[in-house]
Amino acid sequence: MALHHALAPDPVRQATLALLDDLFGSVAPSGLAVRLWEGTMWQPRERPRATLQPRCTLVLQHPGALRRMFTSPSDLTLGEAYVYDDFDVEGDMGAIFELADGLFAAGWSLPQRLRLAALLKNLPADGGSRADRSGLHLVGAPHSQRRDRQAVTYHYDVSNDFYRLWLDQRMVYS
Question: How distant, in Å, are the alpha carbons of 33, 60, 94, 158 from that of 89?
């Protein structure tokens, strides 16, 4: 069992901590910590809490974050969860890639996958808001003018609020 704060019973927090133990317990890189939406910290058992600052902290933004990240686990799902602010990363971003590589290479047995699926199902399906933009379904022959126009329109006809995000970031790093 991993180390974490003892707080008043909360079934969602308990399910999240159990899932973190099962999911990351054997594949977490050294120096990883996870902070839940309400402040609870999870760390792998082998790293005592009183030692050094974590190299990387995965910050779950809401109770349904892990469910969004791992119901259909893939690099695309994890990327979308990050873009939609289901989770954030504080510290060394490279440690998150090590963690993802470890998860995808873990080779979970059927009983382990069933247990993880049951734990995921105990988490809320809702969470942070997501854009109403659904995935693109192109119609027409590949590289036809019609199909290419659909792709360009989908990717570039977005609100000014989207582009303002990048302008704001550029100003921060200038």
Answer: 10, 9, 10, 26
